[in-house]
Fold this sequence. Notes:
The complex is a heterodimer. In chain A, helix 4 (114-120) crosses helix 5. The longest helix of chain A is centred in the C-terminal third of the chain and has 18 residues, at 394-411. Chain A folds into two domains: 3-378, no CATH class; 379-440, no CATH class. Chain A is built from ten helices and 21 strands. In chain A, a hairpin with a 2-residue loop joins strand 1 (86-91) and strand 2 (94-95). Chain A has helices at residues 3-17, 24-40, 56-60, 114-120, 122-128, 139-146, 381-388, 394-411, 416-429, 433-439; strands spanning 86-91, 94-95, 110-113, 152-156, 166-172, 179-181, 184-189, 194-203, 209-211, 214-219, 224-232, 237-247, 252-259, 264-273, 279-288, 293-302, 308-317, 322-331, 339-348, 354-363, 369-377. Chain A is an alpha/beta fold. Chain B has helices at residues 42-50, 74-79, 97-111, 119-132, 138-141, 150-164, 180-193, 207-212, 232-241, 244-257; strands at 4-13, 16-26, 31-35, 56-64, 67-68, 82-85, 92-96, 143-144, 168-172, 199-203, 217-222, 225-230. Chain B is globular. Classes of the chains: A alpha/beta, B alpha/beta. Chain A binds chain B through residues 380-383, 385-394, 396-397, 400-401, 403-408, 435, 438-440, and chain B through 50-54, 73-75, 77-79, 83-84, 86, 89-90, 92-96, 99-108, 111, 143, 160, 164. The structure holds adenosine-5'-triphosphate (ATP) and magnesium ion. The site of magnesium ion (MG) has 5 residues of chain B, from helix 1.
Amino acid sequence: MGAVEHLQSEYRKFVDGLSESWPAALTERRGLAIERFGEIGIPSRRAEQWRFINLNAIRETPFRLPQSFNGFGADDLEPFRYEGCHQIVLVNGRFSADYSELGELPEGVVVASLARAAVDHPELVDEYVGKLAKFEEHPFVALNTAFLRDGAFIYVPRGVVVEQPINLICLGVPEAEAVAFYPRNLIVAGESSQVTVVEQYASLGEGRYMTSPVTEVAAGPNAVIDHYKLQRESTDAIHMATFQIHQQRDSNVSSHSISWGGGLVRNDVNAVLDGEGCESTLNGLYMVEGEQQIDNHMRVDHAMPNCDSHELYKGILEGRSRAVFNGLIHVHKDAQKTDAKQTNRNLLLSKDALVNSHPQLEIFADDVKCTHGSTTGHLDDVAVFYLRSRGIGEEAARSLLTYAFAADIVERIKVDSVRRELEEFLFRRLPKGEVVRQAV
Amino acid sequence: MSMLEIKNLHVRVEEQEIIKGLDLTVNPGEVHAVMGPNGSGKSTLAQVLAGKEEYEVTAGEVHYKGEELLELAPEERAREGLFLAFQYPVEIPGVSNVYFLKAALNAIRKHRGQEEMDAMDFLTYVREKMKLVKMDESLLNRPVNEGFSGGEKKRNEIFHLSVLDPTLAVLDETDSGLDIDALKIVSDGVNSLRSPDRAFIVITHYQRLLNYIVPDKVHAMVGGRIVESGGKELAHKLEEKGYAWLEERVAESELAAAPSA
Ligand SMILES: Nc1ncnc2c1ncn2[C@@H]1O[C@H](COP(=O)(O)OP(=O)(O)OP(=O)(O)O)[C@@H](O)[C@H]1O
Ligand SMILES: [Mg+2]
């Protein structure tokens, strides 16, 4: 049986096993999505959007639905819990009431599992879920929609400010056989509301599995959303994610995508600026080594006038790792006074690492300011020499410059625990990290 | 014992011989000025002393405090007390000036068997040194040289020098492009660091600097060699007469040395 047929048969098992009741429209959408997945299949490298990534690992693994949840100690979760946050935990795609600690939330705010929300707030779930990310065009969004069952549901009503970040911990716990799961997360921020969400992907243990999450973000007028994604799964893990943002007028969304885990990683980040006066910041940092592959696919749609978007993605590559950056800024005909900037920078620390970077602009308006650029290079020898000539050892000098390369992304992280997490990771990963810790 | 002894040094850069048999001896406490036309190899000499790996030493010896300098890695030379103030200081975005200096100083102290300085002691120490070059405190927390003006970069080099406390400092055109006030500040900084066990090699195009930093010896470098040495009066002569007379002399002696056809 091929991979597609296998997933289709898993789908039938999945549907038969659904016990809870779901809005009819969602049930129908699942059916359409699996059908669509059957048509698209798992893309080969001939598919334009998948040219530089090798999905054989997905094709060759008969992924099953998660079965036996073995449990783990609360201590195992400690590294991912950040102090002063509302914690919501998913284990292999399913909400875990035992491990979540939602704490006290402002009036009207809902932070719950999607399955729970479908029962308690069917009107909200029906209004938003599956409306933003298009399964028709993307095989993994199609899979996620077909297998849609659980995830995090975050709703902030008009005018409410959620002071503490919401920390969504998506754990992958490998099972005896490779499993795949499809968290579906939704963040809805009403008019003039504000919320910060941290979305973490981490593994407990080694062993292959696939996470294929879709997170949809609906920013109401004048809403402010800060989103941090931390992808730190084991290198056995496959991660195929879509992050879909929809912005209404005057909203301000920032997304920071930090990725150092996973063996095969794809992040699609799409933002639709659908009202005037929107601001969209899409930053990313990926650091890969060994045989890791990471593919960041960005698309920003400027649909309305007077919006700003800034994208800065930086990559650090070692070993035989591969990175793809594909960024498209699409400025629609009426989107005058668009100010869009897109930058991708890559630092190669080994001679076998490889980057394919394709920033693109499609502009149909005539009064806009759009720039894009991409660079890929090695550490500057002159800078290394300068540091060494002051007494810093060679490894430390190289590490210091590598850290410095990443620093502007690190500094833009406003949630202290996330920033510290990333800093600590860099100190651990970089040779002579202790010198770097002292020097920054 | 001399602090630095260079004998018959030959250096090749990308297949081209730039230093062609250079001799120089510097004793503790001395200040040597090296002058010479553009492209004569002054910076190449400075960078070779600091350990730039792209420059290939094809012949000659360099002894520093009795040790084979050329055997040491750049950071080892720095830890042994050698300092180079770069002609073109390098901008290092993302690395804070002060934290970088702390890491550098502690690497050097560790090598000397001294205890590492903690943040508080270091800050007190650094503030004192900043006064020496009248550097604005804001430049401490900025990334190394990033967005610094030309003068600020040069001053920052002298600031690094004073913090790292070397035994031999090579200043590569630290005076170039400075206005008179900045020049005085830099010179005062250097003069205050002069001591019986420290030596300086000051590379410059301009005699003016030597009014402020009075050298013990002046050398003229032409075509990768030191072709004339003297006291500070040589600097005046070079400024007045230029280097043509020396270049002619070099050409003549090369002609004489060449086997006749
Ligand atoms: N990295 C390099 N690659 C190739 N050639 C070089 C390199 N560095 C220096 N050179 C050449 O070596 C020669 C000497 O250069 P150097 O910078 O040492 O001169 P200088 O005396 O310091 O000149 P200036 O007074 O202009 O600073 C020049 O001809 C220069 O072009
Ligand atoms: Mg020079």
